[in-house]
Amino acid sequence: MAFYAYEQDGRQRKTSQSFFRGEHTNFHPTNNSFAAPNFLAEYLMEGWAPASKFVTKETPIVAFGSCFAANISDYLHGRDYNVLTKKESRAYVTQMGDGIVNTFAILQQFEWAWLNKTPNADLWHGYAAEEFGYDEAVRLETKDLFDQADLFIITLGLSEVWYDEPTGEVFWRAVPMDKYDPARHKFRVSSFAENAANLQAIRALIRKFRPDAHILFSVSPIPLAATFRSVSCLSADAVSKAIIRAALDEFMRANGTDERLHYMPSYEAVTRLFKNQWMADRRHIYPHVLDFNMQVFEAFYCNPGLPAEELADAFRVAVEEDVKIGIHGQEEAERSYYEMVRLRTEQRKEDRRQARIQARIDARVAERRRLRELEMSTRKASARSDT
Predict the structure, then answer these.
(1) Could you give the angle at the alpha carbon of 9 between the alpha carbons of 6 and 14, nearest 5°?
(2) CA 310, CA 221: separation in Å to the nearest integer?
(3) 102 neighbors 157 (Cβ within 8 angstroms)
(4) What are phi and psi of 61, to 5 degrees?
């Protein structure tokens, strides 16, 4: 048998040469690969890293969808990037930054904002099942955000959906208990074709109204909390992720000439690079894994961004923390996590309080300026009448 010789991570290897391997042969990493200095560029970001970094501190960013959009919003906002969806707004994409989780609901926001297309059923509800409705003022605020954005970060969460059977329209998440009508509210698994079509429609709208904007898609690694299917949640979650990940990959391949369309492999980073990424609930991800994911984004997409050596150090620290959890268990790590959540919650409250204070100050300054201009105008008018 003929063998094909190749180098991987500085080592000479051989494999069968029985079949043609094409122009691009990218091998799966081994344990030894993790120590390679170019590991992340070669094994995670190969084919996905943009040709040049395009996100600056001034870039207007709109981020929403599932958890990665919320996490990257918090991270970039904390590093003084211009995240529009972290500013005071009544837009639902701001209030529900990680609650609009399927491609149907994401498309609805773009159609509502730019086409003034309003669903026929009451589909949109907050975290406490409160009804959001279709207020025109909120639509205009959403449109304003979209009209300003030079980067859309959109995270896909799942392909299981609840829908209104008479209209076929899909809910953001599930149906509120007090609104549930078994005669019209149904559950289904959306198809690969539907999700691929929704992605194309989202891109088409952005290209129509913001033709030069960058669009970055990602897939949330957070598993389903539960499935409404009559199969185990583990298997249902595998299918749910597979549908949206496959649809997104076909969508990216179909639009390969669009240099402003991007995929961030956050899903793969979480699920493939760590062994102890999940907390005890098997759904939430440890902060060191989340932080590393955000640092990957900053290193590959932001200008000047995070230097490669700092990213390599961050990855090493994250892997070391991953090993510690494997050795010592989750109890200590989770105590640290919940303390961090408490501090972040308090900081968000303080940020909102300071924003309200600043808004009042700005309003008073603007009013004083208006009164001074009015007084000056009155004096000038009086002086002219005296002459």
Answers:
(1) 25
(2) 24
(3) yes
(4) -115, 130
Q: Position 380: which residue type?
A: K
Task: Place 333 in a pLDDT band, splitting at 50, 70 and 90.
Answer: low
Task: Please list the residues that pair with 215 across neighbouring strands.
Answer: 152, 261
Contacts of 103 (CB under 8 A, 6+ apart): 156, 190, 194, 195, 198, 199, 202, 244, 247
Rounded to whole angstroms, how far apart are CA atoms 220 and 155? 6
Here the tokens at position 69 are: 């959009």
| Spatial distance between the Cα atoms of 138 and 150, rounded to a whole number of angstroms | 21
Q: Is 331 helix (H, G, I), strand (E, B) or coil?
A: helix
pLDDT tens-place string over residues 117-164: 999 999 999 999 999 999 999 999 999 999 999 999 999 999 999 999
Q: Return the structure tokens found at 241.
A: 């992720």
CA 338 to chain centre: 22
Helical H runs in the chain?
39, 67-78, 92-95, 103-115, 136-148, 192-209, 233-254, 266-273, 287-301, 308-328, 331-386
Are 251 and 215 within 8 A, CB to CB?
no
Spatial separation of the C-alpha atoms in residues 370 and 375, rounded to whole Å: 9
Q: What is the DSSP string of 174-229?
A: ---GGG--TTTEEEEEPPHHHHHHHHHHHHHHHHHHSTT-EEEEEE--PPPS--SS
Looking up tokens 């949109």, which residue turns up?
Answer: 124
**262 has pLDDT over 60:** yes
